[in-house]
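FAQ

Q: What does a record look like?
A: Structure on top, sequence underneath. For example:
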């Protein structure tokens, strides 16, 4: 009996020791599983964890190339103006109306495109913009009359409005610390587009005419239509729309390309029911920002296209050092019998325009430094004030070399300003209204683009100083407005909702 009890006690002790060894391990494993199941992350955390890699290089090249398309369609107006003026015997106001109609199409479709992008996705709007702008740009080359030309160019403006939403799509994939570096570099693609259309004008227009120049210029759009399939829909948009599974699939694909991993746990972020609502833009949180931004975008476009078209007009009409244009300059494009007087660009004029285009990227390092050191608000203020000074200096009589240098610096400043206002707008609004906010801003900017031709191309013939002064005054007022912006986005994560 005693031996039996002793054996049972020994067996019980051994069993208890085994349980003590196994239970902590089991408890630890169960705890680990519970932690993994309970851990969550947001899209912002996933984007920051994945970091910069091969996907972002692909994104930068393809989405940056959309700026080539946009630049070629817009800058085409400066190159083709002397040609259509001659072919259809146009007055100055009729030439200016071409640019105005393009920006009118951009303005009308900008808000609509932003609403569609917030409601149904950024990718659809950008892809549709590529197809639309390429189709109507090609049709422009077959325009039988001036009326058809301005109608078709306004349709191109609608397509370009959709393409411009690519900036939002690109911004939503880039980690915060890389935005101030990568987004300004997009100016390189705009410069490439501007230079391509000028080179086409130089090589094709004298031999084949402006119609073939437009047909050839459609090529980049067609190429990008096929390349755009490599760009996914924004994960931030998918989350706001409640499509968590699609967002996770996109983030996993990006992580795989970048040879990184997602944060532990599962993606949890509430859907946003009120997407694409203008009420968000005018809510107490964003009302002051929106009003100031609308004016800032108006001025950004006003001075950018003012500088482009002013330089084209000064060269075409030989208005350098002419303070009060006499009758010879005012009727430069007309004979006494009213027929068109054709003065196409000379080779030196194309060269001056090419050099000025280089100004758009020459000061990118300074732009990056301004953004990282002083932030977005102060960068906008400084750039606007410097632009005002340069516009007034253009009134000083100088040599062609001096004019080229001044134009180079002016194009640098107005391009940098446009770049910073793009970045600030994409960062300040929440995902629920980011595309709509961008759409409203770009629409206001096109009002500036619509007015600029009548100042730069019509008023310029009467007085150079009267034509350049409105641009300088607008810059000074805008600088004050930029200084009063209530939100600084430097170092801040992108908001998902308001």
């Amino acid at each position: 009996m005693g031996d039996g009890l002793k054996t049972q006690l020994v067996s019980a002790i051994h069993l208890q020791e085994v349980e003590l060894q196994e239970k902590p391990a089991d408890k630890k494993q169960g705890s680990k599983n519970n932690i993994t199941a309970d851990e969550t992350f947001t899209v912002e955390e996933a984007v920051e964890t994945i970091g910069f890699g091969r996907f972002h290089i692909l994104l930068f090249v393809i989405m940056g190339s959309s700026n080539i398309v946009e630049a070629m369609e817009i800058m085409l107006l400066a190159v083709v103006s002397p040609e259509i003026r001659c072919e259809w015997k146009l007055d100055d106001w009729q030439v200016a109306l071409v640019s105005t109609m393009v920006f009118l199409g951009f303005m009308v479709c900008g808000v609509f495109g932003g609403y569609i992008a917030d409601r149904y996705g950024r990718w659809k709007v950008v892809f549709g913009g590529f197809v639309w702008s390429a189709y109507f740009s090609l049709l422009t080359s077959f325009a039988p009359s001036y009326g058809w030309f301005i109608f078709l160019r306004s349709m191109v403006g609608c397509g370009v409005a959709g393409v411009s939403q690519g900036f939002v799509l690109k911004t939503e994939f880039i980690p915060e610390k890389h935005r101030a570096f990568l987004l300004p570099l997009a100016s390189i693609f705009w410069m490439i587009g501007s230079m391509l259309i000028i080179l086409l004008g130089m090589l094709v227009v004298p031999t084949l005419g402006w119609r073939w120049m437009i047909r050839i210029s459609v090529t980049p759009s067609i190429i990008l239509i096929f390349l755009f399939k490599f760009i996914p829909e924004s994960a931030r948009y998918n989350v706001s729309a409640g499509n968590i599974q699609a967002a996770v699939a996109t983030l996993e694909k990006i992580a795989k390309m970048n040879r990184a991993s997602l944060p532990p746990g599962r993606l949890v972020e509430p859907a946003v029911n009120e997407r694409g609502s203008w009420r968000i833009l005018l809510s107490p949180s964003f009302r002051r920002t929106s009003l100031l931004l609308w004016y800032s975008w108006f001025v950004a476009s006003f001075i950018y296209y003012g500088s482009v078209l002013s330089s084209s007009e000064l060269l075409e009409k030989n208005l350098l050092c002419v303070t009060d244009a006499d009758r010879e300059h005012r009727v430069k494009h007309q004979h006494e019998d009213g027929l068109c007087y054709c003065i196409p660009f000379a080779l030196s004029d194309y060269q001056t325009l090419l050099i000025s285009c280089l100004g758009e990227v020459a000061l990118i390092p300074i732009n990056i430094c301004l953004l990282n050191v002083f932030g977005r608000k102060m960068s906008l203020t400084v750039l606007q004030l410097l632009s005002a000074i340069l516009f007034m200096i253009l009134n000083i009589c100088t040599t062609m070399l001096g004019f080229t240098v001044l134009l180079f610096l002016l194009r640098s400043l107005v391009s940098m300003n446009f770049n910073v206002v793009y970045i600030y707008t994409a960062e300040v609004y929440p995902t629920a209204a980011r595309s709509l906010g961008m759409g409203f801003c770009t629409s206001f900017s096109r009002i500036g683009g619509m007015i600029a031709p009548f100042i730069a191309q019509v008023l310029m013939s009467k007085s150079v100083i009267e034509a350049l002064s409105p641009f300088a005054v607008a810059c000074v007022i805008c600088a004050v407005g930029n200084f009063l912006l209530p939100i600084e986005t430097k170092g801040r994560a992108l908001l998902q909702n308001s």
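Q: Is there anything notable about this one?
A: The CA atoms of residues 208 and 334 lie 24 Å apart.
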